[in-house]
Amino acid sequence: MTTKRPCALITGATSGIGYELAKQCASKHIDCVLVSRNIDKMNEIKTDFESTYNITVTPFQIDLSDETAPQRVFDFTTSQGLHIDILINNAGFGDFGPFDASRLERQNNMVRLNILALMNLTHYYVQPMIQKGSGRILNVASTAAFQAGPIMSVYYATKAFVLSFSESLSVELKPKGIFVTALCPGPTKTGFVENANLQRSGLFTNLKNTTAEFVAKKGYQSMLKGKVIEIPGLANKTLICMSKFAPRKLVRTVILHIQK
């Protein structure tokens, strides 16, 4: 009699932290459902992971900023008979520049992806987790979640939501056997920099950048331990700790100067 492998669903799984988190799961012999817009890359990952780790990888192509996408993802996995034991909400993007000069539709898409898609996917998948009495949810937030972020105002605000939402759920769901972790990386070397036009930001020129692999390992380990908040890297932990004791006016002014 063979034991059914656990299954993880990872959004934004084709690059950066999302890819490394999928790799962490695959290397532990966890089947993976990959959710992304890039079907070619997902198929490449499927071939690699299935041959390397002897697991099953199921790709699902979709744009999660579409309001109907979370329901369609859930309907797909349900139709395939896939029970999701681990939900990793990684998909998201940012934008660099003053809010008044930004494209409003891009900001709306950011809110739909970074907040609404994450919230809706969590709502759908937590129901069967509750029925089973176990589950893990890893939400990728950011060190941006701990303070306001001039010149990236909407992005920082979306990550503040992810952190607050995750902390609240960790309390609500723990008695039901479900553990929720917020992963809060600082500046990380991924494609996020180009997508958010962050080449000009001091975040990635003035601060030490870590690797997606390091962030994913720390996030995965903390998720297994049931840790509520994981801030990878001593420098990031130190900065967040200092910001908690500094006046908010000072913190947002410092962030502005770092960004510039």
Automatic annotation (TrEMBL):
SUPFAM superfamilies: NAD(P)-binding Rossmann-fold domains
Keyword terms: Oxidoreductase
Alphabetical list of Pfam families matching this protein: adh_short (PF00106)
Gene Ontology MF terms in the entry: oxidoreductase activity
InterPro entries: NAD(P)-bd_dom_sf, SDR_fam
PANTHER family: ALCOHOL DEHYDROGENASE
Family indicated by similarity: Belongs to the short-chain dehydrogenases/reductases (SDR) family.
Protein's UniProt name: Short-chain dehydrogenase
Origin species: Erysipelothrix larvae
